[in-house]
Amino acid sequence: MKIDFDGVQAFVMIAELGGFSKAAQQLHITQTALTRRIQKLEAYLDLKLLDRTTRRVELTAVGREFLPQARNIVHDMTTAVERLKDMSQRAKGNFTLACIPSMTSHVLPEVIRSYADQHPDNRIRLLDGASHEVHAAVLGGQAELGIGVQGEKHPDLSETVLFADPLVFICRSSHPLQGRRSVSWNDMRDADLIGISSFMATRIFMDYQLAKRGIRLHGNYEVQHHATAMNLVAAGVGSAILPASYFQEGDRPDMRKIPLTQPTVKRKVVLLKLRRGGLSPAAQAFEAVLRELSAKLVF
């Protein structure tokens, strides 16, 4: 059933202003156009809502009964449209973001802080998980945007590279390699490494890049999350290979971040969204902030 909103709005305006002339002026249309709207509405309802004479306009009994509901229809529609216009113009609203946990240590908090300064009333629901879970969340519609590691492309996903994130060596200041300005992957053969699970995108990417160069590493320990590896390094259990964005000098006492070279291996952090459809205004605003800040990142 198609609701004739123009006709309902015209009926309410005539009833409240007491005549066609004032109602037409308020709606910025001619009296002829206003008359057509009422005629169309009455024909659709097969009921007469107004009694019009040369001197005045009066509501019929049916019109008086319909007026309160008609006012509600016009009010609800006007309020909804204004709210949507406000969302569009001011990027108001809420959205869900899926993100790999390694981004939540430094990069994502900075982006969210900047976004919150610009849009203080907006809310973000964050789904943190492995890169394949981020892809699945965006594909399944659970998240509008995703931040993950570049991997196998999906035809339904738009993928934009945000920055290149080199892998680095993390150790305590007492480690034999701590004084080096850089270390090579060959130096890692005898290192007491804490490995990240082979299911994590960073580990998959690292193993692939090293396998092409005939390098294979064997860690003494394996954990699921970067944070666990960091905690073990801090406790003196071993050392780790982690993305540079995850750790900044000064984050933890007595810990060092050393560039890994020969070769330098960089994972690409990407922004994911569905190719079909568009983003909500709130998500669009977040994407703009994310792109601006990520362009300035240097590791």
Short description:
Belongs to the LysR transcriptional regulatory family. The chain is α/β, with parallel strands linked by helices and 299 residues long.
Q: What secondary-structure arrangement, pairings included, does this model have?
A:
Layout: H1 5-17, H2 20-27, H3 31-45, E1 50-52, E2 57-59, H4 61-90, E3 94-99, H5 107-118, E4 123-128, H6 131-139, E5 145-149, E6 157-172, E7 183-184, E8 193-196, H7 201-211, E9 221-223, H8 226-234, E10 239-243, E11 255-261, E12 266-274, H9 281-294
Parallel strand pairs: 3-4, 3-5, 7-11, 8-9, 8-10
Antiparallel strand pairs: 1-2, 5-12, 6-10, 6-11, 6-12
Helix pairs in contact: 1-2, 1-3, 1-4, 2-3, 5-9
